[in-house]
Amino acid sequence: SGETPTEPVISTKTGRVYERRLLQKYIDENGTEPQTDYRLAEDEIIAVHSDPPAVKPRPPTLTSIPALLSTFQNEWDALVLETFTLKQQYQQVRQELSQALYQNDAACRVVARLMKERDEAREALAMLQAHSATAPTSAASKTNGSSAGSKDMDVDSTEPDAASVQPADGQSLEEIFYAKAAETAKVLSKAR
Question: H or E element: which one contains 17?
Fold first, then answer.
């Protein structure tokens, strides 16, 4: 057949190596060994066992310049395709990283703004608590001053009454503060 046999056998009469299926077919048709006139029986064929099995040789494709050029062209095409794929993956990873950094930056800004608002609210609450502690003493001095004489002008007080700041009915100081802020907002929006 001109190819390396996959299941090689040896003829005991001539010592030639054949492919088993091809030799069996030839013997069934002619009854003799190929290229000789020797009669060959089934028991005169010995199987060849090789360890490791014979490796098929590569076909002689790189024996001419056009074949070499074709091989080099295929290798170049594969290399360029791989480079293009790597560049696409690189661009995709860059976009994902850019988006992740943008989201991280936005989250940091939001957290910083919330922390600033929290600190401002804590300062306002501390001032309100300090003001509510000093309010009873200022209210007492106010009543003394108003009874002393009528020379003082009538001025709207910007300080809250001690009664309005004091917790009533189990309300917390924050609830009172928010209620007072809402009431002041309503008054100011009516004045507009």
Answer: strand 17-19
